[in-house]
Amino acid sequence: MGQYNKDIVFGLYNDETELMHAIKEANKDHLDIYDVYTPFPVHGLDPLLGLEESRLHIAGFIYGAIGTLTAFLGMTWIFTKDWPIVFGGKPHWSVPAFIPITFELTVLFAAIGMVVSFYTVCGLGPGVENPILDKRITDDKFCLAFDTHHVSVEQAEKFLKTTGAAEIHNKTI
Amino acid sequence: MSATVSPVREPLVQGGKTYHQITEDLISPTERAPGKEWLAIFGISALLAGVMVFCIIWTIWVGIGSWNLNRTIGWGWDITNFVWWVGIGHAGTLISAILLLFRQKWRTAVNRAAEAMTIFAVMCAGLYPLIHMGRIWLAIFIFPYPNTRGSLWPNFNSPLLWDVFAISTYFTVSVLFWYVGLVPDFATIRDRASGLRKRVYSFLAFGWTGSAKHWQRWEALSLVLAGLATPLVLSVHTIVSFDFATSVIPGWHTTIFPPYFVAGAVFSGFAMVQTLMLITRRLLNLQEYITLGHIESMNKVILVTGTVVGVAYLTELFIAWYSGYIYEQFAFFNRALGPYYWSYFGMMFCNVISPQIFWSAKMRRSIWWTFFMSIFINIGMWFERFVIIATTLARDYIPSSWSYYVPTWVEVGIFIGSMGFFGVCFLLFTRVAPVVAVAEIKSILKTSGDQFVGPIRAHHNEVMEEYHEAEAHGKVYSSHHHEESH
């Protein structure tokens, strides 16, 4: 995604417990971790990497609220201003009858908005091809990567070796 | 981590799997040519889907008169099938959303397939109201846009329009939820593939890398989508029930309909999940992922929801009597003992009485009984909708317009054909995507794999042995004994 290339040194671990241990060591040594890649969501990883809680749910709330307002105000405008019709002698502004559609659009807007936001902030999407460090990361390898701009190659390799990485590789992405 | 697992809890992943083995087992079915069994079932399904297409074209060409609906019975097999298919879809969302909120780990083995089932079932369901319109090319008028004859809008007060919103939202959210879960698994397929296959799956995988931050957001997204899908799934069948409950027809105009419909939907949906999973685990050799424990869990849900449905039937009968309202009383008398008595008793037998065999653990864990019962329940739930719709309409307020309804070959063809269409979709799905969520199974392996739960079971046995030994020597550490000795 970036304009310039990054030289990455990465180690592949065989188990998530080894990876977690390595991250703890890296934190102790004040090594700047570029990223961590795993085949499945590993629990307990976020606090170790200092990842803040995702704010996606806040976005979801906002999208939902937009949906609520769109549906409710839309129906209100249509049935009281744009084209008022009497159905079965009921008032034009028949609020209880608007609730089901209001609810459905709340959910619809929240869901679509969140999914679109998720892929946008992650830089993912149809046809996007991000550089892959190793093909086995989506299978059974747990990857810890260092950017050589921040951590020297020797330091990174030495660290990966001592924390038990099964394989150590370099790649420019 | 594994120390927190209860020793009495069954392992959910059997066969001592490694992460790599899980990838192999679950991805490889998409990489090899289909077997003979698959081809045979696919052929039959495709043939039936062809019958559906033919009968739908016939309906549109000849007109709705090719069905046996009349002035008295305006809703027949079409709406019965619509409600039946929507109901089936509900189990998928229940498994993937509600069980996610409840942190039920066994859902990981069946959620992917159940969500696929939801999507295909909703597609089948949506078909019926559309063709029921007769002039399907006017279907655009159900969507709210100011049309060319002045700013005339659809009626937002009508439950039928609520249905349009509910079903389309449900379909959209289900597809999104399903796809969000599929992306990491598509990435796994991509990283094993080459050539054109790699290109296709690269596109589908959205550039997924497995970065920790992405996983974190992915989990946050899944959780909120589950939180949204849970009330959504309840709302969908509630709104479907409003199609009936907000009318003034005796037998339909009841407040019990929403919970009763939702319970029935989950009931029939789980039965369909069982049918599909029992076939799929055999076709794709997934016995170590979809274990007897999973089947038993689902049978428990079937037992509960079946009993809820049974209570609802009896409540309806009681309230009809207790209301003192003769039209309501007649509606229920007519359901049970009128011209369609056979469908009422079919419904009672299949939905209320037969699932009670699942009180027995042996039955819950029997593959043949489960398969047999799953078919039985789906027949029963079809009868339920038919009873509600056709028998109620057949005997309206004016005896001179009473009628009896039998479907034509066109209606039968569309229904049987829609099962074929569903089969085609589901079978294709088993070829192009992993039927079991690969990443999610890996994430529960350490807490639910039999090699991890196993050692603890050994520990449990050790403790129990010590206990029995102590008991034999009269040294039992129960609080009761402590109190005695004081």
Task: Give structural notes.
- The complex is a heterodimer of chains A (173) and B (486).
- A four-stranded antiparallel β-sheet of chain A has the order 2-3-1-4, with helices on one face.
- Chain A has helices at 16-28, 45-49, 56-82, 95-121, 153-162, and strands spanning 7-13, 33-37, 142-147, 167-172.
- Chain A has two domains: 7-53 and 132-172, Alpha-Beta Plaits (2-Layer Sandwich), CATH 3.30.70; 56-122, no CATH class.
- Chain A starts with 6 loop residues before the first strand and ends with a strand.
- With 173 residues, chain A is an alpha+beta fold.
- Chain B contains 17 helices and no strands.
- Chain B is mainly α and 486 residues long.
- Chain B has one domain.
- Helix content of chain B is 71%, strand content 0%.
- Mean pLDDT of chain B is 88; it is low at 478-486.
- Classes of the chains: A alpha+beta (173), B mainly alpha (486).
- At the A-B interface, strand 2, helix 2, helix 3 and helix 4 of A face helix 1, helix 5, helix 6, helix 7 and helix 15 of B.
Give a concise summary.
With 173 residues, chain A is of the alpha+beta class. Chain A contains five helices and four strands; from the N terminus they run βαβαααβαβ. In chain A, strands 2-3-1-4 form a four-stranded antiparallel β-sheet, with helices on one face.
CATH overall fold name of the largest domain in chain A: Alpha-Beta Plaits
Low-confidence stretches of chain A: none
Measured by DSSP, the beta-strand proportion of chain A falls in 5-15%
Total DSSP E strands of chain B: 0
What is the overall silhouette of chain B?
globular
Total count of strands of chain A:
4
Kindly, what is the distance between the CA atoms of the first and last residues of chain A, rounded to a whole number of angstroms?
9 Å
| Largest interface pair | A-B, 67 and 66 residues
| SS field, number of helical segments of chain A | 5
Global Rg of chain B: 25 Å
Beta-strand proportion of chain B: under 5%
Query: What count of structural domains of chain B?
Result: 1
Number of domains of chain A: 2
Order of helices and strands of chain A: EHEHHHEHE
- Major sheet of chain A, described briefly? 4 strands, antiparallel
Oligomeric state of shown chains = heterodimer
Q: Helix content range of the residues of chain B, please? A: over 70%
